[in-house]
Amino acid sequence: MSKTVIYTQRVEFGDCDPAGIVWFPNFFRWIDAASRHFFIECGVPPWHQTAKDLGVIGTPLVDTHAKFMKTASYGDTLQIHTSVAEWRGKSFVQRYRVTRGDDAIMECDEVRIFAGRREDGSIFAWPVPEGIREACS
Amino acid sequence: MSKTVIYTQRVEFGDCDPAGIVWFPNFFRWIDAASRHFFIECGVPPWHQTAKDLGVIGTPLVDTHAKFMKTASYGDTLQIHTSVAEWRGKSFVQRYRVTRGDDAIMECDEVRIFAGRREDGSIFAWPVPEGIREACS
Amino acid sequence: MSKTVIYTQRVEFGDCDPAGIVWFPNFFRWIDAASRHFFIECGVPPWHQTAKDLGVIGTPLVDTHAKFMKTASYGDTLQIHTSVAEWRGKSFVQRYRVTRGDDAIMECDEVRIFAGRREDGSIFAWPVPEGIREACS
Amino acid sequence: MSKTVIYTQRVEFGDCDPAGIVWFPNFFRWIDAASRHFFIECGVPPWHQTAKDLGVIGTPLVDTHAKFMKTASYGDTLQIHTSVAEWRGKSFVQRYRVTRGDDAIMECDEVRIFAGRREDGSIFAWPVPEGIREACS
To answer: What is the predicted ipTM?
Structure first.
């Protein structure tokens, strides 16, 4: 069983659109916060620290696949259950299940990398750092 | 060949994160605008009008799958090439290619529905309206 | 002394700009959430309920004045101290102090109205509802 | 007469809230884009360039005061008329008028600084660079 961390998110009036439901890009805002929160809870330092120690400036997205099952609206409180579903050589799959109590609202699988930055400003994928993998498994 | 509409988006300073690149949820904001823009350019009325005429309040997302190929930053101008890749009975696949000149930045396939609203506030999928399908093909 | 309600807000990576600090429009997102939270905590029903009971669809902004004293960044937790500084006939002044522990980060005074909607879709200001004023003082 | 630059902004579905009108923090997103656009149109290089040449990393906000006159909704196109209303020793007042054709939608006066960054990461205000002032007047 992989480690799972829960991130709690209130839904606000301004997160909703004229149809009265969460405007979907906001789910990705929250999922990105849950991603970072997962690493923090597992004991990984903030990215400005790993930038100094490991050359890792963050975990940008390469691929994402999401399903939306039920709508949510303001006043709701959501739980985002976050884990790493798979470790690969130079990437990993981060998995999210967004629930409101017993309701499944959204599911998402992302492929992310541990990014370094070249002198010219472009980014590249490091091999998954062994210490981070152990901390998060 | 399906109809393709191009939506142009400037990238602004505030769209970028501390790594200096577009924060990915912003791509979904732009894609949602490109989706609506596609229908407008094909001659479909705004959703507040279709709500009265057809009971269609909008085209919420059921599923989305995106790949991120290159980063973008402020000062860039992006082109979002939008089309409908497939019409199904009660849903459709909307396809996006985000480019910066010759660079492929992002690709996305979404499954959306034409939504109606029940008396209790919940939403449901209409069969794809024939008139909209013709206008967009 | 007027009632004060504290709203707690985590600052996330994506809330920050390429300078590494909170991009200022995000402060207004959080202040708007703190505004609604204030009314909820004072026992005022959500706006979709007051729309039915009082014809009040929300509290749109007429005027806002904010000062930014210190920067904030991701990893910070902010406290937003919210109160109503003044009740007027058809508007009120909502006041916010945003702190990070002992640091004053931002201050804001807003003029808001209790809005109704006319048949043509335009909005207007109700006299401040007596029950809401009592609940919030 | 001071130089005025117009920035054009489409209002999108997702910029609007459940009341069907622009959620006000989005005006500040657009105004910030108009601020940067003003400098670019006046010939000032992007901030990542001025960071190298002048030590100026951007123009953070110190104070802002906005009035909201009319609502806007999706489908609208807004014009943001931007100028510098006053140059001070270590700050300047940037002024915005947001219109939709003949309708005045919003007005805003901001105090901004030309920021440098100290070794400890904190920021400070430079005296207004003479070259920038000339380019923008």
So the answer is: 0.94
Rg (chain D; Cα; Å)? 16
Q: Do D21 and C61 touch (CB under 8 A)?
A: no
The answer to whether C14 contacts B23, with C-beta atoms less than 8 Å apart, is yes
CATH of domain D5-136: 3.10.129.10
The answer to whether C46 contacts chain B (CB < 8 Å) is: no
Question: Which residue in chain A is spatially nearest to B65 when comparing CA positions?
Answer: A65
Site of tokens 């967004």: A98
Q: SS in 3 state form for chain A?
A: CCCCEEEEEECCHHHECCCCCECCHHHHHHHHHHHHHHHHHCCCCCHHHHHHHCCCCECCEEEEEEEECCCCCCCCEEEEEEEEEEECCCCEEEEEEEEECCEEEEEEEEEECCEEECCCCCEEECCCCHHHHHHHC
Q: What is the pLDDT of residues C25-41, one digit of tens each?
A: 999 999 999 999 999 99
Q: Which residue of A has its CA nearest to D20?
A: A18
Both tokens of C73, joined, read 């960044």
Parse chain A into domains and list their residue ranges.
Answer: 5-136
The residue with tokens 């050589």 is A89
Distances (CA, A) of D42 to D103, D128, D133: 26, 15, 10
User: Does the pTM exceed 0.90?
Assistant: yes
Query: Given an 8 Å threshold on Cβ–Cβ distance, is D21 in contact with C63?
Result: no
Cross-chain CB nearest to D25 (options A14, A18, A19): A14
